[in-house]
Specification:
Layout (H helix, E strand, L loop, with lengths): L1 H10 L3 H10 L4 H30 L4 H11 L5 H13 L3 H24 L4 H25 L11 H31 L1
Length: 190
C-alpha cells in the first residue's frame, strides 16, 4: 500500500496524454515515447528515493518493513519500459500484445506465489516476487514491442516535448494520486 501510493508520481499521469499525442502525430512517436520513457525513469528514481526516505522516517527501527518497501519500490525502475510500450500498443489499438504479455507474466507470478504459500515462504520472498513481476512484465512488453518491428533504440528525448507532456499531464497526475489515496489510505492507517 505504501508503494502503491507513490506509483502515480512515478507515472506522472502521462498515459492518456502520450497516447493522445501519438494518435495526433504518429510521425513524432519516437520522440513522444522516448521523452515519456526518460521522464518516467527520472520520476521513478526520485520516487524510489523519496519512498525509502519516507518509509525510514515513518517506520523508524522497523527494518523489516523498510526492507519490504525498498524491494517493492524498485519495481518503479522497470515500469517505464512496460508503460512506454503499452502506450504505443494502445495508440495503435493493438491491445492483444498487452494482454498476452500481462497474462503470461500474471500466470507465472500466480504460480510462483502459490509455490511460496505452499512452502510457507517469508514475506520478503513475496516482495521479491512483486519485483520479479515488474521485471518480467517490462521484459515481456519490450519483447512484444520488438516483435512488432519497433525498436527501443530509435526512441529519443525532446526537452520541449517533455515540457508539453508535463504541462498537459499534471491534472491527471493529481487525479490518479487522489484515487490511489482513496483506495489505499485505510491500509496505510492500519
Amino acid at each position: 500500500a505504501f508503494v502503491a501510493i507513490a506509483v502515480p508520481f512515478a507515472q506522472l499521469g502521462l498515459k492518456d496524454i502520450v497516447i493522445r499525442n501519438i494518435v495526433r502525430s504518429p510521425a513524432d512517436k519516437n520522440e513522444i515515447l522516448g521523452t515519456n520513457l526518460v521522464l518516467q525513469l527520472l520520476a521513478g528514481v526520485i520516487t524510489i528515493l523519496f519512498t525509502i526516505l519516507l518509509a525510514g522516517a515513518m517506520n523508524q527501527g522497523d527494518y523489516f518493513a523498510i526492507s519490504l518497501i525498498v524491494i517493492i519500490s524498485f519495481g518503479m525502475i522497470f515500469q517505464p519500459f512496460s508503460n512506454t510500450t503499452e502506450y504505443w500498443f494502445r495508440s495503435q489499438v493493438q491491445a492483444k500484445y498487452i494482454v498476452w504479455s500481462r497474462n503470461t507474466v500474471l500466470i507465472f507470478i500466480a504460480l510462483l506465489k502459490v509455490a511460496l504459500i505452499l512452502t510457507e515462504a517469508s514475506l520478503t520472498a513475496f516482495a521479491w516476487a512483486m519485483l520479479l513481476a515488474a521485471i518480467l512484465l517490462s521484459g515481456a512488453m519490450v519483447v512484444a514491442y520488438k516483435f512488432t518491428g519497433e525498436r527501443l533504440v530509435d526512441l529519443r528525448f525532446g526537452f520541449e516535448r517533455a515540457q508539453d507532456l508535463l504541462r498537459d499531464s499534471w491534472p491527471l497526475l493529481f487525479a490518479s494520486f487522489a484515487g490511489i489515496i482513496y483506495m489505499w489510505l485505510d491500509q496505510i492507517r492500519l
